[in-house]
Amino acid sequence: MSENDPIKVERDGHIARLILNRPEKANAIGMDGFEQLIEIFTDIDNDPEIRVVILKGEGKCFTSGIDLATLGSLIDDGAADSREFLRKKILNGQQSTSIIEKCTKPVIAAVHSFCLGAGVDILSACDIRIASKDAVFSVREAKMGVIADLGTLQRLPHIIGHGWFRELALTGRDFSAEEALQMGFITRICDSKEAVFQEAEKLAEEIASCAPLTIQGTKDVLLYSRDNGVDSGLKYVAQKNAAALLSEDIMEAITAAMEKRKPVFKGK
Hints:
Layout: E1 7-12, E2 15-20, H1 31-45, E3 52-57, H2 68-73, H3 80-102, E4 107-111, E5 114-116, H4 118-124, E6 128-132, E7 136-138, H5 152-160, H6 162-171, E8 174-176, H7 177-183, E9 188-190, H8 193-208, H9 212-228, H10 230-244, H11 248-258
Parallel strand pairs: 2-3, 3-4, 4-6, 5-7, 6-9
Antiparallel strand pairs: 1-2, 7-8
Helix pairs in contact: 1-3, 4-5, 5-6, 9-10
């Protein structure tokens, strides 16, 4: 990967920072960006040293959404083969957000200024979302003549509820950081871009200090329970804990409590 890639990756200890890296294009996301997300999150998922991910944007905003030039290049003559090509491209784009949600490592989105369209698709797949007070969001597709197809319609109602969501999806209107906090889309508002990045770092450090396999298991159980219901979720977590309760990290937690010190977890 190079400095000119649409997404930059920085690794520091147990934290990976993913930076949307097209500031001259307001971090608009093209097909190469979606494909790079798949590559990056595959690598992160397979890296035992990484325990948490921060996702943020370079420059003046988080993202203005999908690169319209990319969208235009997908529209062809309407023949059957062209429609099949488009279907496969949409499915590939969906994989780029699904892989964020399915990543075993928690993902924190740190948003400043605009986060529109495909940016909301990405945020909906993250675990924690925080924003600066100048942040503006929009499920913009209704104003663009397309149906949101990268995950917002499937994920965001679970986060903010159908009442709020249907208003946003059916109007395509902008909504502020204050509204996003009120509806539970974000959990914190910070005064500035710098402050939201600092807050993301604090949250990442706190998560990274916990037992990594427990954090990963918790994320797994949350997603399974959402998709399969309470009873199935309870059975699933019982099986998970039965397999994990003899871990070295649990013994470290007990020993650290007895010695009145902070535990040092190794993910074993």
